[in-house]
Amino acid sequence: MEGCRPLVGFDGCHLKSAFGGQLLAAVGIDPNERMYPIAWAIVQAKNYDNWLWFMNLLKADINIENDAMWTFISDKQKGLINAVETIFPEAEHRAITRSADTLVEWSGGPKFLVTSTSGGYEMVVDTFNKTCACNKWQLSGIPCFHAVACYHSRNIDPVQGIHPSYSRDMYLKVYEHILQPINGAELWESTPYPKPLPPNVKTAPGRPKKRSRKNDIPAVYPTKLKRENTTLRCGHCKEYGHNKRTCSLKKSDGKVKEKEVAEASGKNNETGGITGTNEASENNEQVEISQGVSQHVDNLQESQEPIVQPTP
């Protein structure tokens, strides 16, 4: 940590293993702009108590006495933000903004007045003492965009404003320590302490629940009501609390209609049977009458005497 910047990033992730849990990590940045792991721990959940415990150990381990000289970066977790404010109340803990809309005015000597055309605020920059009113230059050791604008107005390379901790000499100083070799695992001393046991976590029976992450994307059908926090209204009886499919009044009305239809169909069948019987009887009477007429004609023909023609 001697050659690293006073910048620490906090984050956590889920452990996808049989025992679960979450990993808390604190990382820094070395002079080569690479990630430098500082500390990590495995906990049950990322909450305020676990972050508080983790940061207390980190503060004691790297010997942070003046937290005003340090900068901490993290996401917007509720427990994490509160823990940083509790353990490091004087430290910088917010996102760095960038803007190129600046107006530089020389105030004499190494001092400049930088005005933002978009925000309307003014910042005093001292290129000799390497300070800026935004305090970002002092915290990170790298010129902020206000200082870069001042250097560019004087045609000076902004690299001159970078802290010596980012130099080549400091980079070599970080790696000048020799890593001592160690024996293999078969020559390690046996520890007198008991073996670590897995956490006492029991997996609940059944399929684990998955909750979809809600986002701010608008719905595809903005006019369609959601089922959540809404009251159903029946389209049949116009009452609230149920829909048309489960309406009891509709079911009773449907049974009445089916009964009426069945009774009407029964009456039609009876009427059709009577009509068919009357027609059949009339047809039989007509057949009998026609048969009687034909029989009478035959009898008349048989009773007539033959006509004999006289001989000449």
Describe the structure.
By secondary structure, this protein is of the alpha+beta class. Among the domains are: about 5-85, no CATH class; about 100-175, no CATH class; about 230-275. It contains six helices and eight strands; from the N terminus they run βββαβαββββαααα. The strands form two sheets. The chain has a four-stranded mixed beta sheet, with helices on one face. It has a four-stranded antiparallel beta sheet with strand order 5-6-7-8. The protein is elongated, with a radius of gyration of 50 Å. It starts with 6 loop residues before the first strand and ends in a 9-residue tail after the last helix.
